[in-house]
Every structure is written in C-alpha cells, then in structure tokens.
C-alpha cells in the first residue's frame, strides 16, 4: 500500500472567522455539514455517517483560527486540520484544509472535501 501524503485545499467562505469557527469546532456546528451526528467527550469526537462511527482525537485548537484532529485508527503521522485564514487587506475569509491521502485515494478525498465544504457554505449561509 502506498504511503499517505499531505495535501492542502483552500476554499473562500464569506463568513466571519468567529461564526465559521463554530462550524469547525462545536459538535452542533460540525453536525450541520461534516457528519450526520457528532458527539464530543474526553478530547474525542465521534462522527457518525449513515450509521457508521469514526472517532477522532482533538490534537489542537486555537480560537477562531484552527482545529486539528487525528482519526484514532489512522497512521500516527496523519491528521486533518481546518484553518481559518483571513486576508489582512481585504478581510476575505478562506478555509484551508490539510489532510492525508495515498496517490490512489487523493482525487476521491479532494472530491469528498469539495462536497463537504459546499454543505458548510450553505450551513454558514455564505
């Protein structure tokens, strides 16, 4: 099996960093776009899609800026991160996604994120 490599995607989102951050870090916000259901307990998020559960550890969090998770069953060097970027001149807000995928799964992962972010944009009302 080929090794997972880091990739980054960036999406423009018309929202304030504070509002956007709630959708990235709070179970209630995440369940509106990222998963069907999200439970947070003991630094662990349990995400549910179509009845299937996946757990992720919260690795780091910076208010209104960044959330970083690692899937419990994933390789140790892998994580996924959602970072709120704000342009200092224009105040435009973007979301940078960092994730890991093998060469074989890269296109599929990108497509999944594209779809998720579309849901996020409509949830934020941007």
Descriptive overview:
This protein has helices at 17-25, 27-30, 106-124; strands at 5-12, 37-41, 44-49, 52-62, 66-71, 80-86, 93-101. 20% of the residues are buried. With 126 residues, the chain is of the alpha+beta class. The model has no long low-confidence stretch (mean pLDDT 95). The chain has three helices and seven strands, in the order βααββββββα. It has one domain (5-124): Alpha-D-Glucose-1,6-Bisphosphate, Chain A, domain 4. A hairpin with a 6-residue loop joins strand 6 and strand 7 (93-101). A seven-stranded antiparallel β-sheet has the order 1-7-6-5-4-3-2.
Summarize this structure briefly:
With 126 residues, this protein is an alpha+beta fold. Helix content is 25%, strand content 41%.
Features:
alpha+beta; 126 residues; Alpha-D-Glucose-1,6-Bisphosphate, Chain A, domain 4; single chain; 3 helices
Order of strands, main sheet, comes to: 1-7-6-5-4-3-2
Spans of at least 5 consecutive residues whose pLDDT stays below 50 are: none
Along the chain, the helix and strand elements come as: EHHEEEEEEH
CATH architecture heading? 2-Layer Sandwich
Extended strand count: 7
Strand content range? 35-45%
**How would you describe the shape?**
globular
Percent in helix: 25-40%
CATH superfamily: START domain
Q: Largest sheet at a glance?
A: 7 strands, antiparallel
Distance between the termini: 39 Å
Number of helices: 3
* Radius of gyration from CA coordinates: 14 Å
Structural class: alpha+beta
Query: Mean pLDDT, nearest integer?
Result: 95
CATH topology: Alpha-D-Glucose-1,6-Bisphosphate, Chain A, domain 4
Q: How many domain regions?
A: 1
């Amino acid at each position: 099996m080929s090794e997972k490599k880091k990739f980054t995607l960036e999406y423009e989102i018309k929202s304030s960093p504070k509002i956007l951050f709630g959708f990235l870090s709070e179970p209630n916000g995440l369940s509106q776009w990222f998963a069907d259901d999200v439970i947070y307990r003991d630094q662990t998020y349990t995400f549910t899609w179509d009845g299937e559960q996946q757990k992720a550890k919260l690795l780091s969090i910076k208010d209104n800026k960044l959330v970083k998770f690692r899937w419990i069953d994933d390789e140790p060097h892998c994580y996924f991160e959602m970072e709120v970027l704000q342009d200092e001149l224009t105040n435009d807000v973007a979301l940078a996604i960092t994730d890991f995928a093998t060469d074989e799964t890269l296109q599929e992962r990108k497509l999944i994120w594209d779809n998720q972010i579309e849901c996020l944009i409509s949830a934020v009302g941007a």
